[in-house]
Design a protein that fits this description.
two-stranded antiparallel sheet, mainly alpha, 317 residues, single chain
């Protein structure tokens, strides 16, 4: 009906914009669930894990190898992809986490940056990118398509969006209703007092590292299907958009992080067709759509700072 009416937005036909909205919501779902993983880990340990994307990429490459070079079933390779994220994250948190425990938050973050660079170097060594060779890690869900409001939507895209809401709701309930979740919230508020109350701090932190790592693996599994290629460098820099979503949520609110991730995904996608707009400023703005995560994060932080002081650092006692 809208096409018949010739509806357009900023001079761009609505029919051209709709597919980009679908793509934006799908990517936004991945950014959102990744942002939730970042927030949960930060609240429990004070670590802003910038190796999030690299960990997911490593799991995706392992799954790709198992599918292409072994007779293992696909579902098992996908499971190993997710578990790989949890194991790598847990090992880092348990081996190097204590050494950084009393360091400044910036130092903690730089430690995870070192992990990201190590993983990126290992992936470049074992699976170099170049030439005509390309890797693909499609999911069975990508073969199923549905028509929603006149737009083709894959089952993978629906899963990305739905999983973001399910994970956010499930994590919120977990933090509120379970003993482990209560311990994580207490640890976020005051580590020293929580320890004196007999809470096993190391065990709680281990659970946060492992849980966040599982989300790394899930993101690493979903993104290659959305990107239609397994580009581990692109997966590594997933953390930029996810970090923007987490900052929009002030590294505290899971639900604001969710909607922040969706906003980032939509902004990056919808700006693409604006290159066809008759308005020159929109054509120019489309060229800088990759900066959308930073712009949205800055706007959100400035808006929220009018009511309260916003900080991304923690005091370690």
């Amino acid at each position: 009906m809208t096409e018949l009416l010739g509806l357009s937005i900023f001079g761009v036909d609505w029919g051209l914009i709709k597919p980009f909205i679908v793509i934006g919501l799908a990517f936004g779902g991945v950014y959102a669930l990744s942002g939730v993983g970042l927030v949960v880990l930060y609240r429990a340990t004070g670590v802003l894990n910038v190796a999030f994307g690299a960990i997911g990429a490593a799991g995706a490459l392992i799954a790709y190898y198992l599918i292409q070079h072994t007779g293992w079933p696909h579902w098992l390779a996908y499971t190993i992809c997710v578990l790989t994220g949890g194991v790598i994250n847990l090992l880092y948190g348990m081996v190097l986490g204590p050494a950084f425990a009393r360091q400044d938050p910036l130092v903690k973050m730089m430690g995870t940056l070192g992990l990201a660079l190590i993983l990126l170097g290992l992936m470049a060594w074992r699976a170099p990118i170049g030439g005509a060779f390309a890797r693909f890690l499609p999911l069975p869900s990508s073969d199923h398509h549905y028509t929603i409001l006149g737009t083709s939507v894959s089952l993978t895209q629906i899963i990305c969006l739905g999983l973001a809401f399910v994970l956010t709701a499930g994590t919120s309930l977990f933090l509120r209703l379970t003993k482990l979740g209560t311990a994580m919230r207490a640890l976020a508020n005051d580590r020293e007092i929580t320890a004196t109350l007999g809470v096993p701090v190391r065990r709680v932190e281990a659970a946060a590292w492992f849980g966040s790592g599982l989300i790394c693996g899930i993101a690493g599994l979903l993104l290659p299907d959305l990107l239609t290629s397994l580009d581990y460098s692109a997966l590594t820099f997933l953390v930029i958009a996810s970090l923007a979503a987490a900052l929009i949520g002030r590294l505290e609110s899971l639900w604001i992080t969710l909607f922040g991730g969706l906003a980032v995904g939509l902004a990056r996608a919808v700006l693409a067709p604006m290159a066809a707009s008759p308005y020159h400023f929109l054509q120019e703005l489309s060229k800088y759509r990759e900066a959308a995560p930073f712009v949205l994060a800055i706007i959100a932080l400035l808006f929220l700072s009018r009511r309260r002081v916003v900080t991304i650092s923690r005091t370690t006692r």
